[in-house]
Amino acid sequence: MAHTQLATSPGHPFYERLNAVLDTEGFDRFVEELCAKFYAPQFGRPSLTPGIYFRSLLIGYFEGIGAERGIAWRMADSLGLRSFVGIALDEATPDHSTISRTRRLIDLETHAAVFAWVLDVLARRGLIVGKRVAIDATTLEANAAMRSIVRRDTGASYNEFLTGLAQASGIETPTREELARLDRKRKKRTSNKEWKSPIDEDARIAKMKDGRTHLAHKAEHAVDLDSGAVVAVTLQAADLGDTTTMDATLIEAGMAVAELVVEQAESHSEESKINIRGIEELVADKGYLSGAVLKRVKSYGVRSYIPEKRQKGKRRWAGNADEQQATYENRRRVQGDYGKRLQKRRSELVERSFAHCYETGGLRRCHLRGRENILKRQLIHVGAFNLSLILRKILGAGTPRELKNKATRLFLRIFRLLTCRNWPKSSVAVRTTSVLNTTVANRSIRQHCRTFWNLATSTTDC
Q1: What is the rounded CA–CA span in Å between residue 379 and residue 111?
Q2: Fewest CB within 10 angstroms: 308, 337, 372, 387, which?
Q3: Cβ 31 vs Cβ 114: under 8 Å
């Protein structure tokens, strides 16, 4: 078959612009030099180049695909994605086993270096300040089932453990109903100190946001409140409290901002807006509040804005003068107008990063096992979220779906301009109001009229 008869694609406009950004910043050269030590010079099976591997993980975020099998299928199915990753039509796209093997081959430090490279690109384009940082956490469902948990001491399964309890209480051959009745009477039935998952020992039993109990991991983000970029991401055990895990995330964020300050000093970039003093303000929710946390944050030279929980009685500060002073200072800052604005900003930007990375991004449920494997994928996934800030600045859309919706909104706006250009605004109001006040049997028609009225009045030309 002649090459002129092969199917071709002009390329997706979103991925074309994304590739232009990556090429301008020298992404392929950077990752090839970074990953050269993981590739044999002569021997071994045909490998997946670093540029294709990391682009395939970027596709997972932009297309909302969590599993590597789904990423491999999507690349094989789309000519536009073939063009994005740089695979010709006469070449086979990588299957999921190749992507998985490459992930295991490349270590965690290299994935973290790619994430830091993305932060450096954002800093050079003026999309990171690093002065005000918000920290929050969410749970990710692990790739392990609750019914597979075993005892840490004996390795017995849950049913075997209940059967042993029943036999010890005098029931030699317990039925399923008797086991269920015995289990309901027990307290702390699924403690992480007693149970574990044999296939993912890093997973912990935790209650999800919807109230269900699952094996889970805890993802914690540090978000720049001036731009919405995620400057640090950590993966913690799901049974650890927020006051325990916050220090690791804050330290990661501080180191990331410090490295950006050094890069800014060496490059003398005019667009860079990095705060040379590093992180100065920390914003978090009530779950992160404790006297010890406020004392540690103050020792870091960072001002805290963490709201307090309602407590019964009066606190005793005997022997804790430092915690008392840090608590009173934090309380004064939180109750001010600036502190309230920071809390609103935190709830907007941090929750947005969770929604984009884990809900629409498809990573709410982990398809990998082990903390290191999940964190590798998570770093590139969140790095794609940061890249979407650059695309939003260039195109006005951070994902291909958002770009498609933007085109639809543009078409509707042009349609409104064409249909309403010659109407006086008062005429539009009179006509639409008369339609809304008319008794119409079908409620859906009235709803469409109200929608049209809202769209028409939002256009100044009408």
Answers
A1: 7
A2: 337
A3: yes
